[in-house]
Amino acid sequence: MKKLNKKYADLLHQASIATGRKEAVGLLLKAANLQTKFDDNGYIAINPLFSIDKIEEIKIELSRYIKEVTPNVPDHHIFYENKDDKTSIKQLQQMFTYDDYFKELIENSPIREVAEIVLREKAEPKNLQFFNKPPGIGKPTPPHQDGYYFMLKKHNAVTCWLALEKVDEENGCIHYVKGSHKSEYRPHGRSNVLGFSQGITDFGNDEDKKNTVSFPGEPGTFLIHNAKTIHWAEGNKSQTRTRKALGFIYYGESAEINQEAHDAYQEKLRKEMKEKNLI
After folding, report:
1. Is 113 in contact with 231 (CB distance < 8 Å)?
2. CA angle in degrees (0–180, nearest 5) for 247-34-206
3. What is the pLDDT of residue 1?
C-alpha cells in the first residue's frame, strides 16, 4: 500500500493541473496501473480517494439523512441490529432514490468514473448503501459474491466501498480472496444475517486461506471489486467504535439482469424478513 501511495504522491502535481476531474482520475489510475491490478486481483484500493474534508461533509449529510429521511423510508430499505433500538442501524438501502445529495454522489463523482474505467463502459448506478457495525453487536458479514444476489444473465458489475472512519481487524475491515473473480460463482445458501441473505457454503478451503487479503484503512479509503470477487468481514469486536462505510453498486451498460428472478427473490426475502419480525 505504501508503494502505491507513493505513486499517487508522485502524480499529484500532474493531476492538479489536469483539465477536468475525469482526466485527473484517469492519470492516477493509468499511472498506477490499477486497471491491470483490478483485472488480475478482482479488486483495487485507492487510499484515499476523497479528502478528510469531503469525508466529513459526507458524514454530516449522512447524519441529516438518518434524522430527516429515514422516518419516511420503507422498512425493507432500513435494517437494524436490534429492531427495537433505532440507534442500531446496520444498513440503509437505495439512498440515492430518496435524497438529492446522495444521488449526486453516486451519479457525478470520481466513484462513478473509477467504476467506468474498470468496467470499460458506461456505469449505471444501481444502489447506494450505508453499512454500519455497531460497537460490540455488529455481526460478521458472511463470505459471499455480490453478483450472486444480482442475478445477471450477462455479468459486468462492480461494488465500491468507501470507509467513513478508521477500519481494522477489530471493528471489521473487508477481506478479499484474490483472483476469485476468475472462477464461476461458488454455491451459496441462506446465511440468516440480515442484509446479507446468502453466504458461500463451501468457504474456507486452502486456496481461500492462501489468497485472503485484508484491507484496514483510514477514513477515505476506497475499495472497488468485481461482483464475482469473494469478500467478507468479521463482526465488530470493539466496545466503543462503530464501523461506518458507504457502498456503491454499478452495472456496466452491457449487463443483462434476469429481472423476473431478481424481483421474485426480493419479494420472497421481504416476506420472510417480515415473518421473522426483522423489518
Report:
1. no
2. 75
3. 38
b/e string for 39-58 if b means 16 or more Cβ within 10 A?
Answer: eebbbbbbbbbbeeebbeeb
Angle at 174 between CA 12 and CA 202, to 5 degrees: 140
130's enclosing H/E stretch is strand 123-132
- H/E segment holding residue 39: helix 34-41
Which pLDDT score, from 0 to 100, does residue 258 have?
Answer: 78
Q: Round to whole Å and give the CA distance between 41 and 244.
A: 25
Strands 123-132 and 43-46: unpaired
In the three-class reduction of DSSP (H, G, I as helix; E, B as strand; rest coil), residue 132 is classed as: strand
Low-confidence ranges of the chain (pLDDT < 70): 1-32, 195, 269, 272-273, 275-279
All residues at 6 or more sequence positions from 77 whose CB lies less than 8 Å from its CB, including other chains: 92, 93, 94
Please tell me the distance from the alpha carbon of residue 164 to that of residue 244, in angstroms, as a whole number: 6
| Cis-peptide into 48, omega within 30 deg | yes
Close Cβ partners of 24 (under 8 Å, ≥ 6 residues apart): 15, 16, 18
Contact by Cβ (8 Å): 48, 12: no
Note the pLDDT of residue 187: 94
pTM of the full structure = 0.85
CA–CA gap between residue 264 and residue 142 (Å, rounded): 23
